[in-house]
Design a protein that fits this description.
This protein is of the alpha+beta class. It has one helix at residues 2-40, and strands at 45-49, 55-57, 64-72, 75-83, 95-102, 109-112, 118-125, 128-134, 143-149, 155-164, 167-177. It contains one helix and eleven strands. The longest helix is centred in the first third of the chain and has 39 residues, at 2-40.
Length: 178
């Protein structure tokens, strides 16, 4: 009788152990799937601007800029947080947050926190995106932006050119993956 009881406990221990192993295996598979989906798109991730490698006209360059990009079922989601050199009074607290979600369909999608009202995206190739920016008062884009990721996936470069309210601006922004 003692032998039957010890076998039952052994079976329960194996079943419970296998259940835990199955849960661990499922978690590993799900995590790997999520990681490979992000790794599958070179733009996904958090990027911090390298201020010394970037240039802005007119200047000055922002004190700090961090951009988070995710590929979602609704399209590319980009959130950019910028800390400017200007005083708090001039910049509403010193932090600017720009956010949009857009499909790669060339159609305008809303953007918040920007002088632009909408943006459109086109994927030129896996490592290059073209973004155009629009304001309501103009039928044509007022800004063009080319975003590329280096072959090693560690550097993202944005080339921006635009004119808003008669003022021309441009920038070369270099970001490093975090």
């Amino acid at each position: 009788m003692g032998h039957w009881l010890s076998n039952t406990r052994a079976v329960e221990a194996v079943e419970n152990g296998l259940g835990v192993l199955a849960l661990i295996a499922a978690a590993v598979v799900l995590s790997a799937g999520r990681a490979s989906a992000q790794q599958g798109d070179p733009f996904s991730g958090t990027w911090r601007m390298n201020r010394s490698a970037s240039s802005f006209s007119p200047g000055p360059a922002p004190e700090r800029r961090t951009m988070t990009i995710a590929i979602t079922p609704d399209g590319l989601k980009m959130v950019t947080e910028t800390i400017r050199v200007f005083s708090e009074a001039q910049n509403g607290g010193g932090v600017q947050r720009v956010e949009f979600v857009a499909m790669f369909d060339g159609k305008p999608h809303p953007i918040t926190g920007s002088a632009l009202d909408t943006v459109s995206l086109r994927r030129i190739r896996p490592s290059e995106i073209e973004r155009k920016g629009y304001v309501r008062s103009e039928p044509d884009p007022v800004e063009t932006c080319t975003v590329t990721v280096s072959k090693n996936g560690k550097v993202l470069t944005m080339r921006v050119n635009g004119t808003i309210d008669g003022m021309d601006y441009s920038s070369l922004q270099v970001f490093e993956r975090q």
